[in-house]
Write a structure and sequence with these properties.
By secondary structure, the protein is mainly alpha-helical. It has 2 domains: 99 residues, RNA polymerase sigma factor, region 2, helix turn helix motif (Rna Polymerase Sigma Factor, Chain: A), CATH 1.10.1740; 97 residues, Arc Repressor Mutant, subunit A (Orthogonal Bundle), CATH 1.10.10. It has 10 helices and no strands. Helix 2 runs antiparallel to helix 3.
């Protein structure tokens, strides 16, 4: 009897291509919450829209699994698709103002980042950061969210967005530089965020 939890993502996708529903269920269990969180942060904290987009993405996977290139990394491919879905949604919407972009305290992050991000719980800092993140363009926001909320490495982000690793690092650097200026009144909190940049890999 197959133990699906021991299979790699790409092995599971090969089984999905072969119409194995249990393999699809395993992928869904691994990534549905992660994707829902990503869409939630990218799509103006609209929980219903986030769930719809997550379900749509998995519908694409189960209906057209042959579109996945088994030579690619599944996670980065999946986020590439998710990012394109967000881009399409942005094109459909007019420019939005006064929208909310929260830090989602319920989202779990790596232990080694938790202490560095503890200060983000400060309500005043979080409120101001929320406002500033909404001012970022789509490219900056997607890169920031993938790195700091989805815990994706520079390499993974580069693959998902079809960029060089240098471009990803540059985007993060200039995004954080911009935030440092706009959040200068919160220097101690921003200093801890900037420390994360030093350890990017």
């Amino acid at each position: 009897m197959r133990k699906y939890t021991s299979y790699s993502d790409n092995e599971l996708m090969q089984l999905v291509v072969d119409k194995d529903s249990r393999a699809f269920s395993e992928l869904y269990d691994r990534y549905s919450q992660m994707l829902a969180n990503y869409f939630f942060k990218m799509l103006w904290q609209d929980e219903e829209k986030a769930q719809d987009f997550m379900q749509d993405l998995f519908t694409k996977i189960i209906e057209k699994p042959h579109l996945f290139d088994l030579k690619r990394n599944f996670k980065t491919w999946m986020f590439s698709v998710a990012n394109n879905m967000c881009k399409n949604e942005y094109r459909k919407q007019s420019i939005r103002k006064n929208t909310s972009y929260d830090m989602d305290e319920g989202y779990q992050i790596k232990d080694n980042q938790a202490s560095a991000l503890d200060s983000l719980q400060d309500s005043l800092f979080s409120e101001k950061l929320t406002q500033e993140l909404e001012l970022l363009d789509e490219k900056q926001k997607s890169t920031f969210v993938m790195r700091y909320f989805q815990d994706m490495s520079i390499k993974e982000i580069a693959q998902a967005l079809d960029l060089s690793e240098g471009t990803v690092k540059s985007r993060l650097f200039y995004t954080l530089k911009k935030l440092t200026v706009s959040l200068k009144d919160f220097a101690p909190q921003m200093a801890k965020v900037l420390l994360l940049l030093i350890g990017l890999n």
